Task: structure prediction
Amino acid sequence: MNPGALTLWYAKLTPRDQRILRIGAAAVVIILLLWLVLPLHRNLTQAGEHLRQQQEDLEWMRGVGPTLAAAGPGQASIAPANESLVVTIDRTARESGLAKALTGSTPAGNGAMRVQFENADFNLLVGWLHRLTTQQGLLIDDASISGNGGAGLVNASVLLRPAK
Result:
């Protein structure tokens, strides 16, 4: 259909029919726009919610990351065959994020070692002890853990010995 014929057909309509045709055409355009815009708006809203949830998950992961790192890898790691107990304790404490809290270690006889911590993160300390017992084959003979007033911070003295 050519544009001239369409214009002629429109001009022959009564003013009432022309007005109805204009209103109908506008309604069709609005319906088509809504049909396109509403799903786009819904998808954008869902993407925003998904992004917000992902950001919350990331913040949670950043919060528990040190605790998970203190627990170490899921499978036992092999320490060097001739690594001494003091080196194992120092190395694993550093790997677990407890290096600043480790204040000393002293031999306690029979190959045991007493390790002291001040202002240690409790969760990191427990993860480190778990890692020592499950992955390094050490036993905890004695432990004294007390709060020091800081949220989640403790002072501790732990007696460790190799399992034989």
Notes: The CA atoms of residues 121 and 151 lie 9 Å apart.
